[in-house]
Design goal:
By secondary structure, this protein is α/β, with parallel strands linked by helices. Helix content is about 30%, strand content about 25%. The chain contains four helices and six strands; from the N terminus they run E-H-E-E-E-E-H-E-H-H.
Length: about 100
Amino acid sequence: MKKRVVIFGCGYHGRAAFRRCLEKKNFKVINWVDNNTKIQGKFLFKKKIINLNNLKKLNFDEIIFCGKYLKSQISSYKKLNLKKNLCIWDSFKLKPNSIQLKKRD
C-alpha cells in the first residue's frame, strides 16, 4: 500500500522530493504545504498547496521536509502536535543518480 505523503516546501528541493516519490512508487503525494501565502490555494503538479494549519484536516501518513528552511518548517509543524511520521530529505537524499543525470542529457 502506498504511503500518503505531504511535501513541505514547493521550491527546488520540494519538487525534487516530488520526483523522487514518483520514482519510488510507494509514495502518493496528496498535497503540498508552503508558508508563502501567495501560492497557497494554487496547484503544483496537480496537487493543491495548502497552509500548514490545514494539515489537521488531512488524512496522511508522513510529511516530507526538504530545502533550506528545515529548522523553521519542523518547528512550525511540531506546534501542531500531529502524530505523523516526519521524513527529512536533505540534498544528499535528493541528489540524482547517474542514470537520472544521463536521462536529462
